[in-house]
Design a protein that fits this description.
The chain is an alpha/beta fold. The chain has an eight-stranded parallel barrel, surrounded by five helices. Helix 1 packs parallel to helix 9. It is globular and about 50 Å long. The N and C termini lie close together (about 10 Å). The structure holds 2-phosphoglycolic acid (PGA).
Length: about 230
């Protein structure tokens, strides 16, 4: 199974999401080969919108197989008098997956590795599947993970820049150094787009992609998926 995870970050409102989904579904329905792969589980899509859009997204995906709802982050607290927090408990049975420890949380909001481990424990407790991010090949992670996402900060948000992306070789070396076990899914994130994904897809050791910028455009995101 190949995973394509859209991380919209702090982008899109309800209307923009609806129009994104409309275009995305039309593209899937027009392309029977890709549609079949999504429906038979060869391809799995996880869409991670901003938290307020999680429920309408879940409703919109109701009759679609192979497309799941994911959250971008969860609170460091389990619950209680913490105005504005969105906890793993709040998200229980609403989302299937959540990204944990994205490097942007660390860069802009001072999240530490200790915070990430706390979040991870809540995510597990409430039955959500964590997509656990590491920024470097030297990072550690809890044992028993199903998903690890290698997303080196220097490779993120480069847009369509030509020729300056992380090479497959570097990504696979990082996988080795991280000692990713065979039962774990190894996801790569860092300016993946419809051009560079063709090279990455040659390597079956990469189980999927976390896609930020290029997932904001439904046609671009679909083109990436169609390459698989
Ligand atoms: P990007 O984001 O595709 O915009 O570089 C990747 C990520 O969120 O890790």
């Amino acid at each position: 199974m190949l995973y394509f995870i859209a991380n919209w970050k702090a982008n899109k409102n309800l209307n923009e999401m609806r129009s994104w989904l409309d275009t995305f579904f039309k593209n899937i329905d027009k392309n029977s080969q890709t549609k079949k792969k999504i429906e038979n589980g060869t391809i799995k899509i996880i869409i991670c919108p901003p938290s307020p859009l999680l429920y309408p997204l879940k409703q919109a995906l109701d009759n679609r197989t192979g497309i799941a709802v994911g959250c971008q982050d969860i609170s460091i607290v389990e619950g209680g008098t913490y105005t504005g927090e969105v906890t793993a408990h709040n998200l229980e049975s609403l989302v299937d997956y959540t990204i944990v420890g994205h490097s942007e949380r660390k860069k802009y909001f001072g999240e530490t590795n200790v915070d990430v481990l706390k979040k991870y424990s809540f995510v597990k407790k409430y039955g959500i599947e964590p997509i656990y991010c590491v920024a470097s090949e030297h990072d550690s992670f809890p044992s028993g993970l199903d998903f690890i996402c290698y997303e080196p900060p220097a490779a993120i948000s480069k847009g369509d820049a030509k020729g300056s992306f992380e090479s497959s070789e570097k990504i696979l070396t990082a996988k080795k150094k991280l000692r990713v076990q065979s039962q774990m899914k190894f996801i790569y994130g860092g300016s993946v787009n419809r051009n560079n994904v063709i090279e990455y897809l040659k390597h079956r050791e990469i189980d999927g992609f976390l896609i930020g910028g290029a997932s904001l455009d439904p046609i671009h995101f679909f083109d990436i998926i169609r390459s698989a």
